[in-house]
Amino acid sequence: MTTPEGWRQFKLDDVVSFAVPADASSQDIQPIDSIFGILRGEGYEVIYDYGRFGEDLAALGDQPGYTRRSREVDGQAGEEVTFRGDGNPWDVVRILRVEHDRNRLTIRVSCVDDETCRLADGLFDSVRFTPSS
């Protein structure tokens, strides 16, 4: 998978990387027990978390329009859920989760509409884990 045109690579320490749109800007967040952060761009927000825990996707099953499917991530089995947001400000939420070593990568992409949230495909497809030494 190549990085979508105009996007840049975003690295989480030396563990994992993924591509983000050029306008994605980091927000100042103090992580507690994981690699955690927020990126924001025009019409979307990306929240990433790499650590022992992460968001419980099963707890989201009662959200409107909830769907769940398997998704391969860098040769590993992952899981993606999608649901409708409350429109304040996000109408669409897509979340990817994949187990890696003893940790869990969770990436939540929230968007103002379905068209904007298509960027989640490029982002999720670009995830690469650095081999353990």
Tell me what the structure shows:
It is a single chain. The protein is mainly beta. It has a single domain (8-129), classed as Protein Transport Mog1p, Chain A (3-Layer(aba) Sandwich). 5% of the residues lie in helices and 48% in strands. The protein has one helix at 119-125; strands at 8-12, 16-20, 25-27, 35-41, 44-51, 67-73, 76-84, 92-100, 103-111, 128-129. The strands form 2 sheets. It has a 7-stranded antiparallel sheet, with helices on one face. It has a 3-stranded antiparallel sheet with strand order 1-2-10. The two termini are 23 Å apart. The model has no long low-confidence stretch (mean pLDDT 90).
Gist of the model:
This protein is mostly beta strands.
Descriptive labels:
three-stranded antiparallel beta sheet, single chain, 133 residues, Protein Transport Mog1p, Chain A, seven-stranded antiparallel beta sheet, mainly beta
SSE layout and pairings?
Layout: E1 8-12, E2 16-20, E3 25-27, E4 35-41, E5 44-51, E6 67-73, E7 76-84, E8 92-100, E9 103-111, H1 119-125, E10 128-129
Class by alpha and beta content: mainly beta
CATH architecture: 3-Layer(aba) Sandwich
| Number of domain units | 1
Fraction of residues in H or I helices:
under 10%
CATH superfamily: Mog1/PsbP, alpha/beta/alpha sandwich
CA-based gyration radius: 14 Å
What integer is the average pLDDT?
90
SSE series: EEEEEEEEEHE
Order of strands, widest sheet: 3-4-5-9-8-7-6
- Give the total of beta strands: 10
